[in-house]
Amino acid sequence: MTYVFLLCAIVAEVIGTSALKAADGFTNLVPSIIVVVGYMAAFYFLSLTLRTLPVGIAYAIWAGLGIVLISIVGWVVFRQALDLPAVIGMGLIIAGVVIINAFSRVGH
């Protein structure tokens, strides 16, 4: 269940962060509520993850995949450009997450 909780935390964070643009400095009510609820859910599920996974590993996975997913949302939904260095950097982040999960004995 640890990784299910972590996945929920990542998805909630991406939803909350995506709504930040539409919240327009918290001047639009519905997107602002989505931001607050998204971040509350993200931290709740992250706290459940920390019951069994070390904070450094959990945070690395949460932040890394969150960066990649929000960049994809920005590209697809908001039409924000991703140049080659950005794509390479995100590839390295994904590689780091894979290495942590495949080879690290911490938390297993």
TrEMBL record:
It is a multi-pass membrane protein. InterPro entries: EmrE-like, Small_drug/metabolite_transptr, Small_multidrug_res. The keyword Transmembrane helix applies. Keywords: Cell membrane, Membrane, Transmembrane, Transmembrane helix, Transport. The chain crosses the membrane at residues 29-50, 57-78, 84-103. It is found in: Cell membrane. PANTHER family: MULTIDRUG TRANSPORTER EMRE (PTHR30561:SF1), SMR FAMILY PROTON-DEPENDENT DRUG EFFLUX TRANSPORTER SUGE (PTHR30561). Belongs to the drug/metabolite transporter (DMT) superfamily. Small multidrug resistance (SMR) (TC 2.A.7.1) family. This is SMR family transporter. It comes from Pelagibacterium nitratireducens. The lineage of its organism: Bacteria, Pseudomonadati, Pseudomonadota, Alphaproteobacteria, Hyphomicrobiales.
